[in-house]
Amino acid sequence: MPHRLSNSQIKRNAKLQKQNVEKEEYTGKLTYKLGETLLDEDNAVTLECPKLLYEKTGYLEPISRDNLLKFHPEVVLYCPQIPQNTGTIARLCAAFSCTLHLIEPMGFHITEKALRRAGLDYWEHVNVYVHKNFEDFLKTRPNRRLLFIETGGNATPIDFEYHPGDLLIFGAETFGIPIEIMDKEIQNKNGHKITIPMFNRGVRSLNLANTVSIALYVAIAKLRQ
């Protein structure tokens, strides 16, 4: 007859298992800057496509990463709600040498473990800025085009013509981007709405991290044409 564990033994074993899992999970050191620090930095973009060193392993090594950061689009997450999505997007921005902006209020704390875990140990390779609100963010990026990736746009990512340093803006998982923000910038001729077409009406929306992956990759590919 198998030996039955007591409730206290079961709880103790569960606690030990949890501790062992936490030890194995790597949560890289997340470093970020406040958005206001950008006010003291150069907002210029690199107009000429930076040269890359191609490797057979699949890496594209920039001769100057600073020039690549000023040429590639920048990713803006408006009030993100799910830390795992934001961590995954940070990892994407690290791989593609793109700056990441996070607009408060967010649905999680910037130091939350789930966020750090999703970004693995790549945090040192991505520039992350946290802004108090959308208005403060706009002050740090004057004269940049705002590309709202939302439903209801007339252009698709493939059809759109991108400029170096464009700002790709994505809304919160639960409520998107406020209409008044988009309408104001579009009326000012500074904003554009881009929609990723889907082929099944039964699906209301894509996952945020997937949406960023699609839009960002297409934008970079078209910039390099």
UniProtKB/TrEMBL annotation:
<feature type="binding site">
    <location>
        <position position="196"/>
    </location>
    <ligand>
        <name>S-adenosyl-L-methionine</name>
    </ligand>
</feature>
<dbReference type="GO" id="GO:0008175">
    <property type="term" value="F:tRNA methyltransferase activity"/>
</dbReference>
<dbReference type="InterPro" id="IPR029026">
    <property type="entry name" value="tRNA_m1G_MTases_N"/>
</dbReference>
<keyword id="KW-0819">tRNA processing</keyword>
<feature type="binding site">
    <location>
        <position position="171"/>
    </location>
    <ligand>
        <name>S-adenosyl-L-methionine</name>
    </ligand>
</feature>
<dbReference type="InterPro" id="IPR016914">
    <property type="entry name" value="TrmL"/>
</dbReference>
<keyword id="KW-0808">Transferase</keyword>
<dbReference type="Pfam" id="PF00588">
    <property type="entry name" value="SpoU_methylase"/>
</dbReference>
<feature type="binding site">
    <location>
        <position position="205"/>
    </location>
    <ligand>
        <name>S-adenosyl-L-methionine</name>
    </ligand>
</feature>
<dbReference type="GO" id="GO:0002130">
    <property type="term" value="P:wobble position ribose methylation"/>
</dbReference>
<keyword id="KW-0489">Methyltransferase</keyword>
<keyword id="KW-0949">S-adenosyl-L-methionine</keyword>
<comment type="similarity">
    <text>Belongs to the class IV-like SAM-binding methyltransferase superfamily. RNA methyltransferase TrmH family. TrmL subfamily.</text>
</comment>
<dbReference type="InterPro" id="IPR029028">
    <property type="entry name" value="Alpha/beta_knot_MTases"/>
</dbReference>
<dbReference type="InterPro" id="IPR001537">
    <property type="entry name" value="SpoU_MeTrfase"/>
</dbReference>
<comment type="function">
    <text>Could methylate the ribose at the nucleotide 34 wobble position in tRNA.</text>
</comment>
<keyword id="KW-0963">Cytoplasm</keyword>
<feature type="domain" description="tRNA/rRNA methyltransferase SpoU type">
    <location>
        <begin position="75"/>
        <end position="217"/>
    </location>
</feature>
<protein>
    <recommendedName>
        <fullName>Putative tRNA (cytidine(34)-2'-O)-methyltransferase</fullName>
        <ecNumber>2.1.1.207</ecNumber>
    </recommendedName>
</protein>
<dbReference type="GO" id="GO:0005737">
    <property type="term" value="C:cytoplasm"/>
</dbReference>
<dbReference type="GO" id="GO:0008757">
    <property type="term" value="F:S-adenosylmethionine-dependent methyltransferase activity"/>
</dbReference>
<dbReference type="GO" id="GO:0003723">
    <property type="term" value="F:RNA binding"/>
</dbReference>
<feature type="binding site">
    <location>
        <position position="149"/>
    </location>
    <ligand>
        <name>S-adenosyl-L-methionine</name>
    </ligand>
</feature>
